[in-house]
Design goal:
By secondary structure, the protein is α/β, with parallel strands linked by helices. It has one domain: Vaccinia Virus protein VP39 (Rossmann fold, 3-Layer(aba) Sandwich). The protein is 34% helix and 19% strand. It has eight helices and nine strands. The strands form two sheets. The protein has a seven-stranded mixed β-sheet, sandwiched between helices. Strands 8-9 form a two-stranded antiparallel sheet. Helix 3 packs across helix 4. It is globular and about 35 Å long.
């Protein structure tokens, strides 16, 4: 039976976020963790319940990670990646055999998946602040996500700015966009879906297009 460790307290999470924000505002980019309303939207829009292999990039103290675990299938696996050493310690306290907590960089995702013997992920969720990291690093991370995501898989990024949408358009095409107002600060959620492999008349699968839907649809805030 899976057992998800409870938070030691939302105040502890907030103190940890504030402390790390003051130490490195470009890396953390927020003074408090995500709200439960944002966590619910992430789970819903990413299609967490139907996924078998998931990735949580920029997992922080594990609040969103716990929400994902709470909605996941008992047979699914979640790879949580966090670059901040102190946040990694918090992430490692979550007691759930479905979670693999890894301290490292998101642009090493392909190698990290191989390290743990994980297949192409059905879902990649990212809270990495693309607006505060340099453009080259952001593009490298997004190119890696595009390369490893399974056909038919979903990529969801929750962000304060539109930078991730601009960087991702050449790789994924236009995004579906939602806004969650019940979070401090309110955040946009950008969702892309990688086209499923098409079967050619000969019976061989064709590679999916490099972009998703050609038209942008906007989802209403909840």
């Amino acid at each position: 039976m899976q057992r998800i460790a409870r938070r030691s307290g939302t105040m502890d999470d907030r103190i940890a976020f504030l402390r790390e924000f003051l130490r490195n505002p470009r890396q953390v980019a927020s003074i408090i963790p995500s709200s439960r309303f944002l966590e619910r939207r992430i789970v819903e829009l990413a299609g967490v319940r139907s996924a078998r292999t998931l990735v949580d990039l920029g997992a922080g103290t594990g609040g969103t990670t716990r929400a994902i675990l709470g909605a996941m299938s008992p047979r699914a696996k979640l790879l949580g990646i966090e670059i901040n050493q102190r946040f990694c310690q918090w992430l490692g306290r979550i007691e759930d055999p479905r979670l693999i907590a890894h301290c490292g960089s998101a642009h090493e995702l392909q190698g990290t998946l191989a390290l743990y013997g994980l297949p192409a992920p059905d879902v990649v969720i990212s809270g990495i602040p693309f607006s505060t990291i340099d453009r080259a690093t952001g593009l490298r991370i997004l190119e890696t996500i595009a390369a490893v995501l399974a056909p038919g898989g979903r990529f969801l990024a929750y962000q304060l700015s539109r930078q991730v949408e601009h960087l991702s358009r050449p790789l994924f095409g236009p995004a579906q966009v939602a806004v969650e107002l019940r979070n401090i600060p309110p955040l946009r959620l950008y969702r892309w879906e990688k086209p499923a492999a098409r079967v050619a008349p000969t019976g061989r699968s064709r590679r999916p297009d490099s972009t998703v839907a050609r038209q942008t649809s906007t989802m209403r805030p909840s």
